[in-house]
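Colleagues,

Please find the record for the two-part complex below.
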Amino acid sequence: MQFSAVNANTSVDVPFEELRHLSVGDARGIIRANRYAGHTAGIGLGRVQGNLAIVPAEFALDFARYCQRNPKPCPMVGVSDTGEPMLRTLGADIDVRTDLPLYNHYENGELTGQRRDIKAIWRDDLVAFVIGCSFSFEEALIADGIRLRHIEEDKTVAMYRTNIQTVPSGKFAGPMVVSMRPLRREDAIRAMEISARFPHAHGRPMHFGDPAQIGIADIGRPDWGDPSEIEPGEIPVYWACGVTSQVAVRNARLPLCITHAPGRMLVSDIPSWDAGLAVAPAA
Amino acid sequence: MQFSAVNANTSVDVPFEELRHLSVGDARGIIRANRYAGHTAGIGLGRVQGNLAIVPAEFALDFARYCQRNPKPCPMVGVSDTGEPMLRTLGADIDVRTDLPLYNHYENGELTGQRRDIKAIWRDDLVAFVIGCSFSFEEALIADGIRLRHIEEDKTVAMYRTNIQTVPSGKFAGPMVVSMRPLRREDAIRAMEISARFPHAHGRPMHFGDPAQIGIADIGRPDWGDPSEIEPGEIPVYWACGVTSQVAVRNARLPLCITHAPGRMLVSDIPSWDAGLAVAPAA
């Protein structure tokens, strides 16, 4: 596996602690100047963040249908015009080529590079999809006084492949990926209620309790992210996860696709709390 | 203006009063057999209904983007594969060629025919979009004891072009269309709360009160549907309307497009109340 343009995920010029206190516009300016390549959790608080998937136009209609058919893991929060790098519906001046901290570059489903911007490889036939992520509802849970262990411990949330198959579209298919948060029962109930108000950020949970029931063999070994201890009195609660879209894009083995690097989301100008919800029924 | 295949909107073989007491599957069977061409309000109660827009594949990505960017008037509840008439995510055996009571057929933006099925004109390059409609939240309002005058008087809800422009995509653009319901203030507040839970059916209202503020010159003269008297103590409440998508499709002057005839929606198998919400932020 070769990495081009940057060495790995570690090039941090401006410290996270500085970025998290900046306005969303100022933080985006630092990211755009390639002065921050870290994760975006806690940056631009109160704004919708999103997973990125850029695909050639010939596959874009199928991918739009994939997202429409799988709205819980893959809620579409923005789609660019073909060849147009500006995401005008997500902010005044968001350029998808420069405004994420770090990008993954895939050829035929294999990771072939990581870049801090994609100006040099942008093409007139590319379409950028932005898919909601869990940061929006996590902010609301924390504001409600619910403690999220992975955030308190500065870890990445635990994510798992499940035995729930998504609804396919064209080349796009694969298992639903979920993220898991251990919660006390009273917090779990409240978290279900609150997250349900964020359908653009995966909405209410998919499952709680027994991991085997959704095909998770060992809850101590997540497929992505860090394991999270489940303490006495806590139950694991599982939400649909945007990594589902990344798996589907890789499964499709497109000649080219570009995604955000894990945790390095697009930070939009759209308020998290009320994103002018839209829709699609689940199958 | 020429009409092919059927004369007008009046060919009703099985009476509405009979259909409304049937299961959604039985009602669909009668529609499929071309034995009902009337409106679908009240048929298959408790199931998501949708506006239909069928466009050639070359325009489908732009139309998907149009819906994504305008989620309140145009929530995508289903999209067919290219050339595939079965809408598998909306029900077990829904065939978009036969399962609506009446279709409008447009060439270059002009209505050129009305048909009870579109089997003879279906093509391998067509893509069918189903867009949420207000019937879902109206059912919930009625269940809550809110009286809706247009339903009690067996009229079509009043609809208006506004001065609110939708976010364009490719050839698709135009004003937002709203539907208006006169409500007592206490009912209006409750209606705002209840309809907000149906983002796949236009969600909360866009506006209430002064029609001039959204560019409606004469509330007594709707652009579509029947006027509705506003009685003392009532205010007009305006919701985004799926006719917006029909206007955008006609504005695009595509060589071919097919829509439902007004009021003759697709009745799906998806429960209205919890359609597994998805999303997209409004601009």
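Residues 16-133+252-271 of chain B form a domain with the PSTPO5379-like fold (CATH 3.40.1640.10).

Comments are welcome before we finalize the supplementary table.
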